Amino acid sequence: MARADLSYAAAIVGACESNEIGYPEERGPKVTSLQHHIEAIKNVSDYTGIPISDIEGVFSAGWSSELCEHLGLRPKYIDTTAVGGCSFQIHCHHALAAIYAGIIDIAVVSHGEAGWSYRGQTGRGGGGGEVSPGYEATAAYGTFGAPSQYSHAMVRHNHKYGTSPEDFAHISVVTREWATLNPRALMFSKDTNPFGGPITVEDVMNARVISWPLTLFHCCLVTDHGGAVILTNPDIARSLKSNPVWIRGAGESMGHSNMVEMADFTATSAQHSARTAYAMAGLSAADIEMAMIYDSFTITAGMTAEMLGLAPRGKGYTLWKEGHAAPGGRLPINTNGGGLSFNHSGMYGMQLLVEAYRQMSRTAEDGVNGIEGKQVDASNCIVNGTGGTLSTTGTLILEADDA
Amino acid sequence: MAYDKPIPRKGQHTKPFWDGAKEGKLVIPRCKECNRVHWYPRLICPYCHSMDLEWIEASGEGWLYTFAVQHRAFGPWAAEVPYVTAFIDLKEGDRMMTVLRGVDANKPEDIKIGSLVKVEFEKADEDTYIPFWRVVGDV
Lengths: 403, 139
Ligand SMILES: [Zn+2]
Hints:
Bound molecules: zinc ion
Oligomer: heterodimer
CATH superfamily of chain A: Thiolase/Chalcone synthase
CATH class of chain A: Alpha Beta
CATH topology of chain A: Peroxisomal Thiolase, Chain A, domain 1
Number of domains of chain A: 1
Radius of gyration of chain B: 16 Å
Distance between the termini of chain B: 34 Å
Number of strands of chain B: 7
Structural class of chain A: alpha/beta
């Protein structure tokens, strides 16, 4: 069904190019793809009189995270759809929908491709072979992979709030408790994995050190996973044999792309994506009955609980340590056993969605509260994904049909 | 001994930094409009979006913001474990990543956030002097 109400819902108010197009080398130095992007954005900002800092949505063929970081933007809408030459028409379509929906008022669609200057080199589009200055600034120091980065956040949290790695170990212990209720979880039992079954804080602290203070049991699994969800409109949703779970709120944001740009190592952009989602839902953190929180590491989950307002700053870990997040607790968290003990394939956001749907649609195992198809006595669920190095966040507030 | 760690590939927007490093100087970008420094180098000031930028010689001093001890690494760094990585707050503002020197990786509890640190450069090849930071004072 075409949406007639989207026509006239947005306008293009300026269109500019970068300073040196064509064969820049005939007039001066080579131009990088990043430079094409930044110059064009600066030029269209000047042309329209719209300050760059007013841009709320960034649309590009794969560059949006780097562009936002380079520009110091904290966007509310990030789109990196990269489907070849028509990407930019599609970006306009997506921006139209986002503006119509009231998610953003000002969007930039940006293109930068050093197809000639960096010809013959592989990489993004025609402008491959370039070095990102953010990467260049950190490449010498032998940090590789997520654990080597996230450990710095744990140390800063411990310093700032007087917390300890033991406090965060409780997150692993409680999440494992949930895994022992989920037969699909890798760590369900000693039968599913030699390291499976219940664990203690001592087990977590005595495990092999990966990146101090993170031990192996502070870190997520590495597994395979596939998943998919379907969304549709309310009329169709009510006509199906499956149970609908409603999206009551949604928000997104980012803080940085490279960790060296993270302003406060104890805070993520989940505070912003959650604020948007709560406002859309007309709910506050006090209304939330269960949570699915990305737990690539214990620090990720503990810190994110604070960002979602589920606990005061510096106190996120207490949800687990005091048993609130555990089976039978007042605020169940990561009921599938989490990335720590269920499954983590690298990008864990789909696992969060599948589990939230299972609980909200009553298609999970009968659980500890004696409710059919539910492990929890919850009618709503906040779902928060975290990407990169505590970089990017997306928050959903889902609600059961029988809420 | 020849430098055996990964040497960053240099882009085309960072030459003044590497030129400075060769002379033992920490050279970083500053915005002529709002006067704030930033790291890593940008094509545009990330604070006020002016493109009128300059390179300045920084003091080469800062404070330890946070750190971690790497017990697992890849490539040549694997031979160095455990070693301490850190983020440094520059006296002029903004933050750099580094491998921290002047500390004992086996005694992380003795490493103090807020310690005074100073930059030093190690020759990696003719054109590349890598900045490392060393703890030189207490909190
Ligand atoms: Zn500025």
